[in-house]
Design goal:
It is built from 18 helices and four strands. The chain is mainly alpha-helical and 396 residues long. The strands form two sheets. It has a two-stranded antiparallel ribbon. Strands 3-4 form a two-stranded antiparallel sheet. Helix 5 packs antiparallel against helix 6 and helix 14 packs antiparallel against helix 15 (321-335). The N and C termini lie far apart (65 Å).
């Protein structure tokens, strides 16, 4: 009890007990993982229910489509993939498996040693752990940008986990691993930790071809540091290191196929994928706007418009230019390519930097508002992920 000069007693605030402070620190440290896993568990739970209703199973859906290819490569290597696995046009050549980059299946094979050779479990573990690693990187990214905060970082993590095709983050797909490496490469750039940035960019270059956007962002940032004579030798090493993974694998495929554009030829022949300057996207949007009736098509149109708007907001908010380079190049790669248009929503999952304006805006709102938006996004993502895998079978 404390007594003031006018003899009116007031109660002194209770002292914070040591174990309460420790618990608060532990909860704060676990928050990024908790937010990410909470949103993804909602998605996986809804998918399980929808899969059961359609006569399928959760495990079957989480390992479908490209997941089968990646698990087969992890188990048998490129040369031993079963002849039953075919490309998008129902064809197959000895070089077809080379369309899939080695980073994810290689890591799955390594983790498989710890799971007793069960590569399905290993693949799901790699995706889950990678997603958590990405969550911590996203939280840090939200703290580093101008006007950022811990709250903004956690909201960015939640919105990322609730992306329309966020279900891919929980599958035996490359999305979670790619995003984990990409976000930490960008964190390295913002913190001028060039070896971290270059190493992550090199590693992500072994995961999927859209690593070109990460490599370009890291390389240009490193070049700017060199030209302004900052940080000594580190940006030199980081910038050069960033290119090794992507160029190394493309060079390997070129040597295997005997053609300089070997990987690109495999993709075009087997999956119809090639850069066309956006002609196919414009044609697709025109058909959807005049004839489309499917929910999936409508969402693709909305996502196309929304991605451009969010990029514009990022420019207006003056987000760090390496982040804008990464986001813009990723959009060019996705929207500027011909191929399987239905996969664009999945391919845009790594465009997490475009969510920064939304996260920063929500961070300034009341907690109830932010929670309501995140909850709505999580439920919508959960339904759409289930719809994409169990009802509309060409989304992944």
């Amino acid at each position: 009890m404390v007594v003031t000069d006018d003899a009116q007693p007031i109660t002194a605030p209770p002292a914070t007990r040591p174990h309460d402070a420790d618990r608060a620190r532990i909860l704060d440290a676990l928050a990024p993982a908790g937010v990410y896993l909470g949103v993804r568990l909602v998605g996986v739970g809804v998918l399980a229910g929808m899969a059961a209703s359609s006569g399928s199973s959760l495990l079957r859906e989480l390992t479908s489509w490209d997941g089968k290819w990646l698990l087969a490569i992890a188990e048998f290597g490129y040369a031993g993939v079963s002849a039953d696995l075919l490309d998008a046009f129902g064809g197959r050549t000895p070089d077809t498996p080379l369309a899939f980059f080695p980073g994810y299946p290689g890591l799955v094979a390594a983790v498989g040693v710890l799971t007793g050779g069960n590569l399905v479990v290993a693949g799901l573990i790699v995706s889950a752990v990678s997603g958590v690693v990405a969550a911590y990187g996203l939280t840090r990214l939200g703290e580093l940008v101008p006007g950022g905060s811990r709250r903004a970082g956690l909201l960015l993590t939640a919105l990322f986990a609730a992306a329309p095709m966020g279900v891919a983050l929980s599958m035996t797909y490359t999305e979670a691993l790619f995003c984990a490496l990409a976000v930490w490469a960008l964190v390295g750039v913002l913190r001028r930790q060039w070896l971290l940035a270059g190493g992550c960019a090199a590693a992500v270059g072994l995961v999927r071809p859209t690593a070109s956007s990460v490599v370009a962002a890291v390389g240009l940032a490193a070049l700017a540091a060199v030209l302004t004579r900052r940080d000594g030798w580190r940006p030199w090493v980081g910038g050069l290191l960033a290119t090794t993974g992507l160029l190394g694998y493309l060079g390997y495929v070129a040597a295997r196929t005997g053609a300089l554009d070997g990987w690109f030829a495999i993709q075009r022949t087997g999956w119809g994928w090639h850069l066309d300057g956006g002609v196919a996207t414009v044609r697709y949007l025109a058909v959807v706007l005049t004839e489309g009736e499917r929910a999936f098509d409508v969402l693709i149109v909305l996502t196309f418009v929304g991605s451009l708007v969010l990029l514009g907001l990022g420019v207006r908010m003056r987000l760090p230019w390496p982040l804008l380079v990464y986001g813009a190049l990723l959009l060019v790669t996705v929207w500027g390519s011909d191929g399987l248009t239905n996969t664009t929503l999945r391919l845009l999952v790594p465009a997490f930097v475009l969510l920064l304006p939304v996260a920063l805006g929500l961070a300034r709102r009341r907690t109830g508002t932010a929670v309501a938006v995140v909850a709505g996004a999580a439920l919508a993502s959960a339904w759409f992920g289930g719809y994409a895998l169990t009802i509309w079978p060409y989304a992944i």
